[in-house]
Amino acid sequence: MQEFAADFEKIDDCEKILAYVYAFAAERGATALSYHYFPRFESPNSERTFVHGVGFSEGVLEAFVEEGLMKIDPVPALVFANPPVLSWNRAAAMTADDPVAVRYFERMREFGELNGVSFSLYGPQSRDGYAAIVFERPPKEMPEGLITLLHGVLQAAHVKISQITAQSEEAVDLSERELEVLHWMSMGKSAANIAAILSISPDTVKTYVKRLYEKLDVGDKVAATVKGLRLGLIHF
């Protein structure tokens, strides 16, 4: 973990940190990565949880957030109760008698997302997080020690993201429109999507995003969203 922490010390952009983690995992057989940041003392299933995902099948992230799959996902509670790593197959077996959990795993199978592993992450001042990696093969077939290695990388990344977004946590005054843009950013919407939702131009959205970065003292979308959650600026 110290090696990765040293690498992350050179990066002050949260999106680049997660891109580093995904590239590292993809080189070792991963096909998708999700990173979940939830407000302190809240559950990973909270509606205020921010999800950053890459590599998933089309429609998975939308279904996860907009269909409410995140709210019924049984894995986060299980991995925090059985830290720090839990495969989705084991989680499914542990909840075989729970119809809600069964429905969740059936929906994920429909998307072809079967070979997942989830990780509990711990940050400073109870800033905990959660992550999941999907592999092209069942996790039990992966090389010995790989899952532990990836957990170390994710843990180092989470600590760094927590440190970046902890800087300058004083109150931030945002306009109503800036708050709206931040909200939709946290929902994973692109500038074009936000422009259509708010009936403004994409260039205007980009101007608001630039102002958000300046006011929040961050440099990327992930950091802006995480810091917005920390400061209570995002409401659902």
Descriptive labels:
alpha+beta; 2 domains; 12 helices; five-stranded antiparallel β-sheet; globular; Arc Repressor Mutant, subunit A; 236 residues; 5 strands; Beta-Lactamase
What would your notes on this structure say?
The protein is of the alpha+beta class. A hairpin with a 7-residue loop joins β4 and β5. α1 (2-8) packs parallel to α8 (146-166) and α2 runs antiparallel to α8 (146-166). It has a five-stranded antiparallel sheet, with helices on both faces. The protein is globular and about 50 Å long. The chain is 52% helix and 12% strand. It folds into two domains: 2-166, Beta-Lactamase (2-Layer Sandwich); 176-230, Arc Repressor Mutant, subunit A (Orthogonal Bundle), CATH 1.10.10.10.
Question: Topology, please?
Answer:
Elements: H1 2-8, H2 14-26, E1 30-37, E2 50-54, H3 60-66, H4 69-72, H5 75-81, E3 85-87, H6 88-94, H7 99-110, E4 116-121, E5 129-135, H8 146-166, H9 176-186, H10 191-198, H11 202-216, H12 221-230
Antiparallel strand pairs: 1-2, 1-5, 3-4, 4-5
